[in-house]
Amino acid sequence: MTESLLNVTNLRTEFRIGGEQIPVVRGISFSVQQGETVGLVGESGSGKSVTALSLLGLLPDPPAHIAGGSVRLQGDELVGKPEKFLRSVRGARIAMVFQDPFASLNPTMTLGEQIAEPIRLHKHLGRREAKQEALRLLHAVRIPSPETRYGQYPHEVSGGQRQRVMIAIAFACHPALLIADEPTTALDVTVQAQILGLMADMQRTTDTGILLITHDFGVVAQVCDRVLVMYAGQIVETGTTEQIFRAPSHPYTQGLLASLPQSGKDRTGHLQSMPGQAPNITELPTGCPFYARCPHRMPDICPIHEPEAFETEPGHAARCYLYDPTLPVAMRRSI
Predict the structure, then answer these.
(1) Residue 30 bridge partners (DSSP)
(2) What per-residue confidence (pLDDT) applies to 259?
(3) pLDDT band at 184 (very low <50, low <70, confident <90, very high)
(4) DSSP per-residue letters across 160-218
């Protein structure tokens, strides 16, 4: 069996705060296959964006640093590599679409120049050839009048068009992996659907693997093949999209899905919500970090020992003692 496009093993990222090393990403492992879309979901503050920046080596050191683990892209280790090597990887083999395109685009450069820049850097094309490729990409992401847009600045186009430009930049060098960090959060529903469809079309053309970071399960259901659910710096549940929606196993995943509006239900009713808040990453409790909010908590074990991931069915696992086969059935209780 060939190695996955992206293999992340026991990745740990820490921040130095007030003289202490605070674990923010706590030993996560996952993979992304070529042409696959994997969704990374969770509440704000769960560690999703820090995970993405860790993969790219974009976190400022200090205060952040990779404390351990492995990130392998097409068999090449990225953790610990010098900045010169990482610069050759970013944009060429791994690219990123950020949540806010207005903050990500350079306001002093035209849209066309920003698309052409990585093409010239990584493909070593001249200005004329790079411009032609940039115009082709503007057409591919369905921006009208590419010649006109090429010479415009970010403030002269809409938010949806800026995000299309970001996608054009990301796919400019046909990367093997695309990381999309909340790429549609700031857009209205109609434009969101267009952007997601555009990413899917570009993916089919290039066979790029996508790691999609989002808090929107509607987006996950629409575009993802597999799902990683993140909480307090850990991946607490993994499975195919069908498995996660059909039989969510971790109480946190169940709570997230239960809080979604359900069609056909009484519109006057209240949405369900989970009690409490995610723990402060600087003051994580011992044991399971979801213990205080969990409706199925077991006082004899959950607050004492942190659970490992237990398989609930082939390809589907949850970091919860409810699925620990070594515990008595009466203790685990059915959920």
Answers:
(1) 8
(2) 84
(3) confident
(4) HHHHHHHHHHHHTT--SEEEEESTTTTS-HHHHHHHHHHHHHHHHHHT-EEEEEES-HH
Give backbone dihedrals phi and psi of 99, rounded to 5 degrees, phi first: -65, -40
What DSSP assignment string belongs to 269-291? SPPP--SS-PPPGGGPPSS-TTG
Any idea which residue has 């009208």 for tokens?
144
pLDDT in tens, 282-334: 889 999 999 999 999 999 899 999 999 999 999 999 999 999 998 877 666 54
pTM metric for this prediction: 0.91
Residues 9, 57 contacting (CB under 8 angstroms): no
Average pLDDT score over the chain:
91
Cis (ω within 30 of 0) for the bond into 154? Answer: no
How many CB atoms lie under 10 A from the CB of residue 286?
Answer: 10
Q: Report the chain's C-alpha Rg in angstroms.
A: 21
Between the CA atoms of 125, 128, 133 and 138, what dihedral angle is there, to the nearest 10 degrees? 140
* Residue-level pLDDT at 331: 66
Q: Kindly report the number of other CB atoms within 10 A of residue 30's CB atom.
A: 19
Structure tokens at 151: 């010479």
Q: Is the separation of the CB atoms in 213 and 40 below 8 Å? A: yes
Quickly list DSSP for 113-168.
Answer: HHHHHHHHHHH---HHHHHHHHHHHHHHTT-SSHHHHHT--GGGS-HHHHHHHHHH
Find out whether 167 and 212 touch, Cβ atoms under 8 Å.
no
CB count within 10 Å of CB 139 equals 15
Alpha-carbon distances of 175 from 37, 123, 146, 200, 246, rounded to whole Å: 14, 12, 22, 14, 33
Residue 257, SS3 per DSSP: helix
202 C-beta neighbours (distance < 10 Å), count: 20
Taken as a whole, the chain contains a residue count of 335
For tokens 């953790």, the residue is: 79
